[in-house]
Amino acid sequence: MASPTIALEPGWLEILRGEFDQPYMRALRDFLVGEKSRGKVIYPKGSEFFAALNETPFDAVKVVILGQDPYHGPGQAHGLCFSVRPGIRPPPSLLNIFREISDDLGVPNDFPSGCLEGWARQGVLLLNSVLTVERARAASHQGKGWERFTDQVVASLAQREQATVFMLWGSYAQKKGSVIDERRHLVLKSSHPSPLSAHRGFLGCRHFSSCNEFLKAHGQVPIDWLKIDNDEDRHDQST
User: Fold this and answer.
1) pLDDT value for 229
2) What is the pTM of this model?
3) 22: Cβ–Cβ under 8 A, 6 or more apart, which residues?
4) What span, in angstroms and rounded, lies between the C-alpha atoms of 212 and 219?
5) Which secondary-structure segment (H or E) carries 165?
6) Residues 51 and 79: beta-carbon distance below 8 Å
7) Active-site residue flag, 69
8) Which of 21, 59, 69, 236 is catalytic?
């Protein structure tokens, strides 16, 4: 993970370069190397650890959605929070996200995929707090250093002059986003979209229309939430 060889979008590399030489990051690298040497399977693959940052350059970020850690099932995680690879059945939390978009925007719930690369390419940073996980062991890489790294990502965005939308779903994301200046940015909070908590505030939150209203009010192009992983024509949105 030394900065001279890290494959990271140039804008993010400029912001985060110093982190890769910090002791915590070297310890994280040693941990991951050690886990792999013992035959542990880690998701996502190494080239996708920083996929969220590479898909959404620093200067292009308009919206931030904070997740916790990657999916730990085979073929699911590919470096974007809540997103799964094309052809993989959307997990329950993502299905609730799609349900809320449909209800909020008054559009059919007919998303063709659970892959959210189309959002990332429009400026939605899909950032997990922890960027790796061991197969079949949820939260297994928490406390190993990733949180400090992604705290720097959030802080760097919060310090920008550009008005940004932060979607903080659940207490974990809200705690991580406590550094955000709500006078400058729009901070949208609700319960997590998990089936265990979605009915306690996520469903009905109308975050997606609120986000687009804020972006338009600040002279930015709104997000086409129906554009997922391809360039097919989507339904017109009234937001």
Assistant:
1) 75
2) 0.94
3) none
4) 11
5) strand 165-169
6) yes
7) yes
8) 69
